[in-house]
Design goal:
By secondary structure, the chain is an alpha+beta fold. It is built from 21 helices and 24 strands. A hairpin with a 6-residue loop joins β7 and β8. α13 packs across α15. Bound molecules: zinc ion.
């Protein structure tokens, strides 16, 4: 069991949420993603620029070393010259600023007097200009949790980046539809000590965001988790999707850092070191049976003195120290590496291993690592492995890591340094007026939890139904329909919460069922023209055939029959079953009711059928 307190565990959370505004942050393009074929493409090459302090950001530098070309997919309507960085940004989308002010207020934050934008250098290609525009909206808020208050450090309004679509041989393709969608970034202080607390804070921030005008669905909210332990380093885990997985992720990262510290201790005890030389193995392996190596243009090795046995050591469930080294190598475009602790294997024989050991001068406790690919890639990759191995002698490196679905993580890039911000000169600053803030405070949205409790109380709904209604974001719709219709609250609510979900699963586009259409259907129910059971079929038909609810009920033969019609059908059933009635008397009731309901289901109220049938049977005797 890990003693988090003793290890000095500290965590912070960074949440990115897309806003659901009509336009993008700096142009009038709409904020929806498209799957259409791109209408044109732009090719770019990005290089890091120096910040005002004259430093090149180390993450930016890493990216530039990879020598990539970037292809941007663009559209005539969904994107414009602003996304292509061929035209300056238009004035800021004020709706987006207002939504971010509402969120800041709900997080008890201090809002800035003047909103101004900065450029944050990003050269992984996800921004055509080589930077992302971001502006500070508010600072120093807080959230109450079971484990005490958590400070919310900053809230920024920024533009989302382009979508990475794919990559092949030195070319990365991005789609411009996502670039410029307004995004709110919320950063907590790195002060949380308990994994369950991080989960609670993430949940609360999510609830607050959902009460405002934000986008819903996969990819619209992204959470990053900062984790450090006292002797370790700050690591940022990108893209944590599942809140329930957060505590496990924290645990795995702490285990990783604890093991890296153990490895450091052992390496220091052994007086381990990293040899700077790259050894060309072309001659040693020129007759190898290993397919990977014989296919490659070049194969080199490096020597790690005193590392033997540690490269194969597991540092995270299912992931070894070798995986860390290989993570750095892969960033240089190679597909992986081979190391002493796993050889002989992969077609590399024991004789070859011995020959390599001899060639690089590796003794008993030493390890080698070899990589096969194009020469330049191999050399860059091995230098990265050397760099990572040297770090292992000293510390746990600060890294940005990608969170994986199994609650582990893999290396993405070094943690960005603070030197990547510079001033945006294309957009004037905006004063945030006292009036605007007061207006926002006076009209704050109801939070989901409050909303749930209120509708349970006000409409006498069950907890489960109210929760589902809030979760599916149909409370407003429910209240509007309920105000116009005499149908009972539970029927309306369960139609909105459950029936629509069923319909969506069946392939209906339920967004087309607006309040007016739903109200028409409920009116038919209220007027006794249809039964409650018929609603699902009717709404399905409305979705799929484009009928009105009444047309749907008629075409499906689901209109309720008049009492006279029901009576006629019952008489018909009785007369064709006289023999059975004579034999069984009132005992025939069950069978007759079954026959009647089979013919009348969805077209007559069961209670009425039962009553009429009973009366008629009694009259026979
Ligand atoms: Zn645009």
């Amino acid at each position: 069991m890990l003693d988090y307190e003793k290890l000095g565990l500290k965590m912070g959370l960074e949440v990115h949420q897309q806003l659901n505004t009509d336009e993008k942050l700096f142009c009038p393009c709409d904020c929806n993603l498209t799957d259409k074929q791109p209408e044109y493409k732009i090719l770019r090459n990005l290089r890091p620029t120096q910040s005002e302090l004259g430093k090149i950001d180390r993450a930016a530098f890493e990216e530039a070393r990879r020598k990539l070309n970037f292809i941007y997919e663009a559209y005539v309507h969904e994107t414009c010259l602003v996304e292509a960085d061929d035209e300056p940004p238009h004035p800021l989308n004020m709706e987006a600023l207002e939504v971010s002010l509402i969120i800041a207020t709900l997080l008890n934050m201090h809002v800035v007097d003047e909103f101004h934008l900065m450029r944050k250098q990003v050269i992984d290609g996800s921004n055509t200009g080589g930077f992302q525009r971001t502006g500070l909206v508010a600072t120093e808020g807080f959230l109450e949790t079971e484990y005490g208050n958590v400070q919310i450090d900053v809230l920024c309004l920024e533009e989302d980046a382009a979508r990475r679509i794919g990559h092949e041989k030195g070319k990365v393709t991005f789609r411009l539809d996502r670039l410029g969608i307004p995004l709110v970034e919320i950063t907590t202080a790195p002060s949380m000590n308990h994994p369950e607390q991080v989960k609670e804070v993430a949940y609360h921030i999510g609830q607050i965001l959902r009460s405002t005008k934000v986008k819903r669905g996969i990819g619209t909210i992204r959470q990053d988790l900062n984790i450090s332990i006292r002797e370790g380093a700050r690591v940022e885990l990108k893209g944590v999707q599942d809140l329930d997985l957060m505590p496990k992720m924290v645990e795995n990262e702490v285990i990783r850092q604890v093991n890296l510290l153990k490895i450091r201790e052992e390496l220091n005890n052994r007086n381990a070191s990293v040899d700077d030389e790259l050894y060309d193995l072309a001659e040693i392996l020129n007759e190898t049976k290993s397919k990977i190596i014989s296919k490659a243009r070049s194969v080199f090795a490096i020597k790690l003195k005193g590392f033997k046995g540690l490269i194969g050591m597991e540092i995270q469930p299912g992931r070894r120290f070798g995986t860390e080294l290989s993570g750095y190598a892969k960033k240089m475009g190679v597909s992986g590496l081979f190391h002493t602790d796993e050889l002989p294997a992969y077609g590399i024989t024991e004789e070859e291993v011995n020959a390599i050991n001899e060639f690089v001068g590796a003794g008993d406790g030493d390890a080698f690592i070899l990589i096969a690919d194009e020469e330049e890639k191999v050399q860059n990759a091995l230098q990265e492995v050397q760099r990572r191995a040297k770090i292992a002698l000293q510390m746990v490196p600060e890294e940005t890591r990608k969170s994986l679905p199994d609650a582990n993580s893999e290396y993405l890039r070094p943690l960005p340094t603070a030197s990547r911000m510079y001033v945006e000169t294309d957009i004037p600053l905006i004063s945030v007026s006292k009036n605007l803030l007061e207006d926002i405070k006076a009209n704050l949205p109801e939070l989901p939890e409050e909303k749930k409790l209120r509708i349970i109380e006000q409409y006498n709904l069950s907890e489960d139904l109210a929760k589902q209604l809030v979760r599916t974001d149909r409370v407003d719709s429910f209240e509007e329909i309920k105000a116009e219709s005499g149908v009972d609250s539970t029927t309306i609510a369960s139609t909105l919460a459950y029936t629509l979900k069923e319909l969506r699963r069946d392939g209906c586009i339920v967004d087309e069922l607006n309040n007016n259409i739903l109200l028409d259907a409920f009116n038919l129910l209220e007027e006794g023209k249809i039964s409650k059971d018929a609603i699902t079929q009717i709404l399905t038909n409305v979705c799929k055939e484009g009928n009105s609810p009444e047309e749907a009920a008629e075409s499906l033969n689901l209109m309720m029959l008049s009492e006279t019609d029901v009576e006629n059908i019952i008489e018909e059933i009785i007369s064709s079953n006289r023999k059975m009635i004579d034999e069984r008397g009132t005992g025939a009731m069950g069978s007759l009711m079954g026959m009647a309901m089979k013919r009348l289901k969805g077209k007559a109220d069961g209670k009425l059928v039962n009553k009429l049938l009973r009366d008629k049977l009694q009259n026979i005797k």
